[in-house]
Amino acid sequence: MVRFLLQNETLLRRAYGRKGLEEIMAEAFPEGITAAYREGAMSFLRGEHFDLAARFFSRYLRHRPEDVEAHFLLLYCRGWDAYLKNRYRSSLRAFRQALRLVRDELRDRVKGFLEKMAAAVGQMARELQEEGRRRGAKAAFSLAEEIRVLAA
C-alpha cells in the first residue's frame, strides 16, 4: 500500500485534490510524509526495485539530510541500478561513494548490504577482466577487496 500511495501521488492529488491527498497521507502515515518516503524506499529496496528506491530515498533526504544511513542506501541503490544496466563505471562510482560513508556505528547496520555490494563489484571485476579492460578490472577488484574487509 505504501508503494501504491507514493507512486500514485499525482493521480491521487488529481482525484482527491491537495487537501484530500493530505488527509489520505495523514491517515496512512501518522508519522508524516517523511516517514512514508523512507518506508516506501525500504519497501522498494527489499523488492530490488533500485531505481524507485533511490527516488524515494532522495525525497526522504530532502527532509532528513543528516541521515547517513539513508545516504548510504541511496548510493547503494544507484550502484545496483547502474550495475543492472551494465553501466559499470557509474556503479563503481556510486559504490565507492557509499563506502566512504561507512563508519563503525553504521557498519553493523549495513553489513548485509556491504556483502551484496562486494559480490556485485567482484562480478563486475571478472567481467571487465574478460573484456580485456584491465584498468577497470583492477580498480573493481581493489574496491571489492576494500568492501570485503570493511564487511568482515
Describe this structure in words.
By secondary structure, the protein is mainly alpha-helical. It folds into two domains: about 1-65, no CATH class; about 70-150. About 85% of the residues lie in helices and about 0% in strands. It is built from eight helices and no strands. It has helices at about 1-5, 10-30, 35-45, 50-65, 70-85, 90-100, 105-130, 135-150. α4 (about 50-65) packs antiparallel against α5. The longest helix is centred in the C-terminal third of the chain and has 27 residues, at about 105-130. The protein is elongated, with a radius of gyration of 18 Å. It starts with a helix and ends with a helix.
Rg over CA atoms, rounded to whole Å, is 18 Å
Quaternary status of these chains? Answer: single chain
Number of domains: 2
Structural class: mainly alpha
Helix fraction bin? over 70%
Strand content: under 5%
| Sheet having the most strands | none
Termini distance? Answer: 36 Å
Number of strands: 0
Spans of at least 5 consecutive residues whose pLDDT stays below 50 are none
Overall pLDDT, averaged? 91
What sequence of helices (H) and strands (E) makes up the elements?
A: HHHHHHHH
